[in-house]
Structures are given as C-alpha cells and as structure tokens.
Amino acid sequence: MIFPYLLRLVCLCLACFFLVHLALGLLVSLTASWAIRRASRMDAPSAARFLLALRLLPAGGASIVVAGICAPSYLWLEPEASAEEVGLACLAAAFLALIILIFSIVRGLRAFRRSLQYIRHCQRVGRQSRLPGESRPVWIVSGAAPLLALTGIVRPRLVISQPVVSALSGSQLAAVLSHEHAHRLSHDNLKRLAILLSPGLFPFFRGFDKLEQAWARFTEWAADDRAVDGDGRRSLSLAAALVRVARLGAAAQVPRLATSLLADSRDLSARVDRLLHPRAKVRPRHPHLATGAVLAFAALLAAVVLEPATLIAVHQLLERLIQ
After folding, report:
1. What DSSP letter does each residue of 220-282 carry, written as one string?
2. Vertex 35: Cα angle to 208 and 190 (nearest 5)
3. Which of 31, 85, 133, 160 would give a disulfide with 174, using CB separation of 3.0 to 4.6 Å?
4. Residue 120 and residue 20: Cα distance in Å, rounded?
5. Tens digit of each residue's pLDDT (9 = 90 or more) over 187-212
C-alpha cells in the first residue's frame, strides 16, 4: 500500500514501538524470576521500586526510542514530497502496536471508571466519620464482608467496613490505618494505573503476571514496614490486626485501582512472620546508584540523538523496515 508522508511516519513509529517493546518485554519476562530473587534480598521499598521499574521498562524504553531517535531521523532525512509503499511486515507490526496500545488504554480507562463508581457507591451506602489517629475523613460502610481499602487516585479515600472497626482494638486500628496511609504516601494506586496502561507483549497476552504479582507483594510489605517504622509494639498490633481481619471471612471485592489490607490472603502468613520477626534495616550500599544510572542513560541517549551518523543509520534501518 502507498502511504503519504505523515501516515508513513505514524506507521513507522507504531512498528518501531512494537518491535522495541517486544524485545525489551521478552527480556524482562525471561529475567523475571532472577529479578524477583534479587528483589527478595533488598528491603521492601527498594524491591517494589526495582520491580516497578522493570515492569515499565518495555513501554518506557520503546517510547524513548521512537520519540528520541526514530521520529527525528525520519523527519530530518525523509523527503516530504515523496509517496512510498509500505510493506506487509511493517503494516503488521504497526497493527499489533495499535492493538496492544488500544487494549492497555481501554484497560486503564475501565479501571479508572470502576474506581469512580466504587467511590460513589461507598459514599451512597456509607457514612463519613473520623477515626482516632486519622486526620482525613473515612467512609464506613455496613456489610458482613471485611473491608479496609484505599481507593481512588487523585484524592484517595479510605473505606472501612463496620465489622472491621468493631473487631479491632484501638492500637490495631491505628496500625492498619497507618498501613493504608503508607499506600497513600507512596501513590500506589497511581502506580497500579501505570501498570494497567503499560501494554502487554501481544494482544490477549500480557506476559508480566509473575512480575506484577511480586510487585504487589513487595508493595504490601513496604506499606507494613512504613506503618510500623521499626516499632515492636506497632508490629505486634499490625500482625494481630491482619489475623483478626482474616478471621472475619473472605475480604470484600475492591476495584483494581485500590489497595486492600488483605489483597492476597496467600501472603498473610509471610506478612505476619515479617512483622513478628523483623529483619534489621538494610541500608543501600549505593543510595544514589539508581539516580546516577538514569542520568547516565539520559546523557547517553542525548549524545546518540545529537549525533548525525546515528540518525542516518536509523533512517537506513527504517527504510528497510518500511519495505
């Protein structure tokens, strides 16, 4: 098919995004087990940040390559007046990129809409109250299923069911509220949205389930650590609260853009064990290593983009891709 100048640019950008994303995604997916083992040797907040960075690497890396290298080389070296035929392979890659991007955007928008609907539902059936130790109002809802969750992104709301309030002592309630407050400070619901908006490897196949589950587990551990802050009494209170809420029955279902106190009951024993037997805090050997790596990568990318020979070489590759 013969495409005009700008339509060829769009097609090439989509095709390049898919190919780079696929290469980086396969690398991340194949090394997921190694990454999780490495994360288990870190403190929980560092492990959560490390796994989140890996999960967002394919989409972020592909976007940088397309916006920083592919598009500039095409705009600089491709004649504007020419019309050129686009090959089947390029069209197929562009189509797959379009599909996985549409899937991810729809998935994110649907989760955002359900989060808003859930918040409105809790506001209709619940009552706003202030609990001891909590500066912001809390929505208390009735119902038999135990519920304690932070839902929403722009202005996260804390929702708690009456059975949970009645079952917990004052110190236990303060501990679980601190846990959810830690999620708010870490913007974990926003991170969940970023993961939902990140495309999968192929349509109907994401390929990052193991990594996402590990990130969610370390996120809960990080919130536990931040809530207790090394205090033995608070650790005991939070561990007791987790067990007591779990004994109330199966937790109520919450939307995907929400952090529930017991999101995964299979991790309950590990969380309680960590709280009862806390490890000494591990101080990072190189606290600025991640920042330095990001700055070094940005400087390298800028040097590559500003080098004319690089853009010429990339343009030659694009010419082969489009045929």
Report:
1. HHHHHHHHHTT-HHHHHHHHHHHHHHHHT-SPPP--TTEEETTS-GGGHHHHHHHHHSPPPPP
2. 55
3. 133
4. 40
5. 999 999 999 999 999 988 888 999 99
Residue 28 CA to residue 51 CA, distance in Å, equals 10
Tell me if 109 sits within 8 A of 208, measured CB to CB. Answer: no
Helix (H) or strand (E) holding 175: helix 170-186
Local confidence band at 287 (pLDDT 50, 70, 90 cut-offs): very low
What would the two tokens of residue 131 be? 């609990």
**Taken in order 65, 69, 71, 74, is the CA torsion positive or negative?**
negative
Top pLDDT among 283 and 89 is at 89
- Domain count within the chain: 1
- Quote the tokens at residue 113: 């809409």
pLDDT digits (tens, 9 = 90+) for 43-88: 999 999 999 999 999 999 899 888 888 888 777 766 665 666 777 8
CB 260 within 8 A of CB 149: yes
Domain coverage including residue 159: 2-279+288-322
The C-alpha atoms of residue 48 and residue 46 are separated, in whole angstroms, by: 5
Provide the percentage of residues in the chain whose pLDDT is more than 70. Answer: 82
Return d(Cα 317, Cα 247) in angstroms, integer: 60
